[in-house]
Each structure stands twice: as C-alpha cells, then as structure tokens.
Design a protein that fits this description.
Blueprint (H helix, E strand, L loop, with lengths): L1 H32 L12 H20 L1 H5 L8 H26 L5 H9 L16 H19 L8 H31 L2 H20 L11 H6 L7 H19 L9 E3 L4 E3 L5 H11 L3 H14 L1 H22 L1
This protein binds Phenylacetyl coenzyme A.
C-alpha cells in the first residue's frame, strides 16, 4: 500500500514537473521568437546549452587549429610586409579562439574540458584545416576562400540568440573581413604583375582549395542533424545550403576579377533560379576528413597536443603566481 501511494505521489510530481518544464520551454521559445538575447544566468533548456557548447567549442577549436596551416608559412613569407600581415592574421585567429572559449565557458564547461575533448579526438573542428599548405599561394587562397566562407557563415551568427556568442562574433567578423581582403589582395598582385609560374601557382592553389572550402558549410540541409532545432532556437539563422549558395554566387564574380577558373565544369549561371548552379560535392571525402582521415588530421592534432604539453610549465607558473597573490591578499586582510 505504502509503495503504491508513494508512486502515485511521484507520478503527480512528475506530471507537475513536466508541465512546469513545458511552460518554461514555451516562455523561452517566446523570448527567442521576440528576438531577445539569452544571457548566461537565464534559464535555458539543457539541450540548448549542450548545442551551444558543441558549436561554440568546435568553432573555437577550428580557430586555433586553423592557425597551423598558415603558421607554417610565417618563416617563409616572401617579404617583411607579407610576414607582418600573416603574423597579425594568425595571432587574430588565436584571439578568436580565446573569445570563443570564453563564450563557451559562460555555459558552465571549463576550458580544460573543451581542450581535453579536442586532444582526445572527441570534439570536431572544421574539416578545412586538415588540408596542407603546399605553396605561398595557399596562404592567399585561405584568406580569400576560407576566410570568405567563414565570414559568410559567421555574419549571421552575430545575431545568434545567445548573447556572449553573438557579441564575440561581431569582433571576429570585423577581423575576418581584413583577413579576406589581405588574401585576395596578395593573389591579385600575383595574378596582375606576377610571373607565369606565380599565376600557375595561384590557379593550382584555387584548384586544391575550392571544393574543401564549399564543404565548410556542412552537409546539405536534408542531411544536417542539428540545423532544424538550431534554427528554431535562433542559434543558426541561415541554413548550410543557403549560405553555401550565397558564397558560390559571390565568389564566382571575385574569381573572374582575379582571372582564375573555379575547378567545376558544372558551374554556370541559372537565370531561372537567379543563382549559379554548381557540381556535386564529394561527401565521401567530407565525412572521411571529418572522421579523422584527411591529409593532415593526425599532424594537426599531434601539433596541438604537443603545444598543450609544452605549455604545462606556463600554466603551472601562472597558477602558482595566482595562488601566491591570493595568499598575500588573505594575509593582508587578516
Ligand atoms: N567540418 O548538423 P550539422 C574559420 C559536423 S572558423 C567538421 O549541419 P551544425 C576561421 C557537425 O559538427 C571555421 N565537421 O551541424 C579561420 C555535426 O557533427 P556533430 C569554423 C562539420 O553544427 C579562417 C555534423 O557534421 N566555423 O574558418 C563540418 O548545425 C582561416 C552534422 O552537421 C564554425 O565553426 C565541417 N565543415 O552546422 C581560422 C562556425 N560541417 O557536432 C583560421 C560555427 C558540419 O553532431 C584560418 N559553426 N560538421 O558531431 C557552425 O556554423 C555550424 O556548426 C556548422 C555545422 C555550419 C559548421
């Protein structure tokens, strides 16, 4: 008898909790629909928090792994001017990682947890950074195409419903615009006043980076796991396919000005759609790279793990200093 009445109480409590949860979720969705920003101390559904931690931390990892392909060229930049620009760009990417880790931390996940997930291969980062930078032209093409794709994807994130992420993205996007322009300008110099070999080097880099760049936007909307819910929650504002199309339309014109050919025989203007049609993306390649088997996945991860291990003494020293300061403050307060 006793057990039965208790379970009845439990059932009532469960029903009340469910009703309360549903009404909280409805109020939360209403705030999002009204265009409100959600702030760290506000109530949010557990899955909203989880989705944001996943996306923001993947984004942060992409920024710091993204320092590596271009970082390889800092010592080999062709002039002092190009070296200074590249140094500044790579440092900016590190800064973007830091703003983004800080934004993700406001959701209750520590930086150590996020980095551990990266280092153990549990967390993803953008597929694009698993391709090698074989020539100097690759650095320009990364600025033009990779930063160009990143801007297309990230400008709508400045209106993301989660305040700390949206605010971080405003500064990130301003810096990415400079990155895109420096890349395009360096290619323009080579295409307009370079040697035939330099022009061929630019075309070769475009051939290798084009398809991976349009893969950056993620799977087609029909295959995207998270898009529907993320769009309902105002985390994503524009779908993967729509962003990819906007990027293709803008880039074809830029390629014409530059004088390079995009390596897609099916690329052509479609009057009826008012957009460029383009060829089929090799999704097998995309998922292989996302799954850890791209040309540089192992190298990239090993470099990040080594940087983390080599930096241990810095973290220890910083923590020891903080600890000493705290002890001093306690002594002074006593
Ligand atoms: N690479 O359901 P969806 C940059 C995964 S920063 C690897 O569509 P979602 C700056 C996805 O995580 C570039 N994985 O997922 C720079 C999910 O797997 P999960 C990074 C990918 O989240 C420039 C699964 O596929 N930008 O470039 C990729 O709704 C130059 C299903 O996909 C951002 O992170 C991919 N390309 O949409 C730095 C922007 N695409 O998590 C240095 C913020 C998809 O279930 C030099 N992120 N996946 O295991 C986003 O906008 C979204 O997260 C998407 C994916 C659009 C990337």
């Amino acid at each position: 008898m006793y057990t039965q009445s208790l379970s009845l109480d439990q059932e009532k409590k469960l029903a009340a909790d469910t009703a309360e949860e549903q009404s909280r979720e409805a109020a939360f969705q209403a705030r999002i629909d009204a265009g409100d920003y959600i702030e760290p101390k506000d109530w949010m559904p557990a899955h909203y928090r989880k989705t944001l931690v996943r996306q923001i931390s993947q984004h942060a990892h992409s920024e710091i792994v993204g320092m590596l392909p271009e970082g390889n060229w800092i010592t080999r930049a062709p002039s002092l001017k190009r070296k200074a620009i590249l140094l500044a760009k790579v440092q900016d990417e590190g800064g973007h990682g830091l703003y983004l880790y800080a934004a993700a931390e406001t959701l209750g996940t520590s930086r150590d947890q996020m980095l551990d997930a990266l280092h153990t291969g549990k967390a993803k980062y953008s597929s694009i950074f698993n391709y090698p930078t074989l020539t100097w032209a690759d650095v320009g093409v990364i600025g033009w195409l990779v930063d160009g794709a990143a801007i297309m994807n990230q400008v709508p994130l400045c209106r993301c419903s989660y305040g700390p992420y949206a605010r971080a993205m405003i500064r990130v996007c301003r810096e990415e615009s400079f990155h895109q322009r420096q890349g395009y300008e360096s290619l323009l110099v080579m295409m307009q006043s370079g040697t035939e070999a330099q022009k061929a080097m630019v075309q070769d880099a475009v051939n290798r980076w084009w398809w991976p760049s349009i893969m950056m936007f993620g799977p087609h909307d029909s295959d995207s796991l998270h898009s529907e819910q993320s769009m309902r929650w105002g985390i994503k504002r524009i779908s993967n396919d729509e962003l990819r199309q906007k990027f293709v339309d803008a880039t074809v014109e830029q390629a014409n000005v530059l004088g390079v050919t995009l390596p897609d025989p099916d690329m052509k203007w479609n009057e009826a759609r008012g957009h460029y049609d383009f060829g089929r993306i090799d999704w097998d390649e995309f998922w292989r790279v996302v799954g850890g088997d791209g040309p540089c996945n192992r190298e990239r991860l090993a470099t990040r793990v080594k940087a983390w291990d080599d930096g241990e003494w810095v973290r220890e020293a910083a923590l020891a200093h903080t600890h000493k300061q705290q002890q001093q403050q306690t002594k002074e307060a006593a």
